Structure formats: C-alpha cells, structure tokens
What we know:
Elements: H1 7-23, H2 26-35, H3 40-48, H4 67-80, H5 82-89, H6 95-101, H7 104-116, E1 121-124, E2 141-145, E3 148-159, E4 166-172, E5 184-190, E6 196-201, E7 212-222, E8 227-228, H8 234-270, E9 272-273, E10 276-277, H9 282-310, H10 316-341, H11 351-359, H12 369-382
Helix pairs in contact: 1-4, 4-5, 4-8, 6-8, 8-9, 8-10, 8-11, 9-10, 10-11, 10-12
Amino acid sequence: MRFAFTEEQEDIRRAVREFCEKEFDPELARELDRREEFPWELYKKACELGFIGIHFPEEYGGGGYGVLENAIVVEEMCRADSTLGTAIILGDFSSEVILRFGTEEQKERYLPKVASGEWISAGAYTEPARGSALSERLDTTAVRDGGEWVINGVKTLISNATIAKFIITLCQTDLEVEPPYRGQTLFIMEADTPGVDITKIRDKMGIRASPTGEIAFSDVRLSDEAVVGQLNRGFYHTLQFFDESRVEIAAQAVGIAQGALDRALRYARERVAFGRPLVQHQAIAHKLAEMATKVEAARLLVYRAAWLIDQGKMDPALTAMAKTLAGRVAVEVCDEAVQILGGYGYIGDYDVERFYRDAKITEIYEGTKEIQLNTIVRYMVRR
C-alpha cells in the first residue's frame, strides 16, 4: 500500500499552487465576495492551464486524468482562497453527467467548451418543496406533446444558474409510476431556451463569488436529443453523479480547512502575547495540533475515495463518509482559526472570517450531512 502521489500528480499540485500564488489576490476575493461576482478572468486562466476538466478525456478537451487529480486541483485552489477557489472549481458542475451518460454528440458539443472556459455548466436538481428528497415525486415535470417534451416547474439553490450556458435538469417524466423515482429523466437545455427564467439569489452566508439562482421553466420545449442517459433512469444517473461529485466537495472542504489552518498557524507564530508567540502557549499549540490531525484524517479519506473511483471501484458509502468528515472538519477548523485570531479573526480584513463563512456550505450542498449519514448506514446494512 503506497501513501504517495506519482511524480506527475505532484507536478499537478505544484502547478496549481504556483498558479494560485501568482494569480489569487485576497483583496480581489474580498471585493468579489462583497459584490457577489464571479472571477471570470481567473476562471479562464485556470481553464487555459487545463485545471478545469482535468478529469475529462483528452478527446473532449480535458487532461485525461482521474477523480484523484481533480481532487488535488480542488484542494489546492480552495486552500489558496476559499472564495476564489470554490467559484472556479464549480465552473464545470454537472458536466460529468454528460461525460458519464451523454451521447457522443452531447459530449462533443458541450465538454470541450466547458474545458476551454468558453461555457459554464449548471445542474438543476433541488426544488423548493423537495430539497434533497429526490426520491419523491418531482414538481418539475416533462410531458410529451407530439414529438417534443414540455417542461414546467421550478428549481432552486442552483450553482452557476446565472452564468451557465447550459443546464442539466432532473424532471418527472412518468407521473404515475410508483415509486416516483423510477419515472425521472435528465434533460440538457441551454440557458437561453424560450421559457427558461433565471433569478439570482443574493445575500448568501458564503461562497458569494459562486453565483446561485432559481430557475423557472414555463412550457420549455425540448426534443428527444435533449435527453441525457436513459429515459426514466435519471434518478439513478443523478445518484451516480453525486457519488462522484461528493469527492470534489469533500476536497473543497479539505482545502478550506487547510487554508484556515495555514493562516492560524502563521498568526500564532507571529503574534506575541504575555511575552512569547501564541504558538508557544499550550492552549493554542494544542488547538493547532488537533486542527492539523483532523485535516490530515479528512484528506486521507478523500484521497482514498477518489482513488477507488479511478480504479473502477466506486464506494458510495466511502464518498459519503469523505464528504461528511471533510465538511465537519472544515467548519470546526475554521471556527478554531477564528478563535486563535481572536477579534481580528472576526473582521473581514482577515481571511479566516471569509473562510469560516465559505466552509459551512460543504455540509449542505451535494446532499446535507444528514443525507450522507443516511447513505452510509444504508450501505452498512446491505453489507
């Protein structure tokens, strides 16, 4: 059993770190956080360097790497800055649905444009009355009318909604089947399709540079070519996508936690209290040691979950564990980082305040921590 990256994987880590050290500006992050705006210029530079879609095959404009390499990119970017990193790494959200289940024509049309930075993708799964309960009968429906599908409904809390070129949407296509999830289908539609209305959701607690919106569908008409994967198998396709995407969010959480730890340690080494640096006070030293232990434990779990996917051995329970632990660690470590900085940690001029706000979402989206626990127990019982 080897606990080391290959030389190529280490090169990827170094390249991402160098990019972030050169391009990420804390003042820009604070400004975009205040204005709730996406870092377009940084995003396109990241795409030009091959960091977005690194896990896409080369024939679709990607790097030909796996989920583990993508996790490395995500962790490093979010470690450098939680706000800028999160916005950038989510630019290709849900495009993996096309990669895993789309037709060749869909892959050729959408994936290269995502990898190049020309297009941003979004996934519309959450509904106002459903939240994470995708197994229930969806309010967003797709009904046959002649040779087309007519879509009506509302999706909310959708990442990238206001900036995405196209949206992957989960709809109820069989209104009678029991259980309802056996009658759900995924569709792909471009954001400027007639009948698609997108509203920005403002004043979020964190990740404000990553735009979130609500999408209303009013008699949106799509052809059969818009179906992604198999008809009435959308629920299963979505679960498989989330099994993989949870690792990315877990890596995001690890990166945020490590970034907060870095800043807390730096402050503790520089700040003098009662005649000596904070790091020499046992109360602070023990906090830092516990923070580092938590981050390392979460990181190893994330790496293992990612590695198993790349080996063709997807373990939904393990990916749920990774997201659960990493999200909890991100929140706890950021909380302690603010505590170590004291009053300074509570104001916006110090990064840990923003890291703390950005960390919380990792326990919520891509399935809440409670949903992850349900997944873990379900697989425990099966085994």
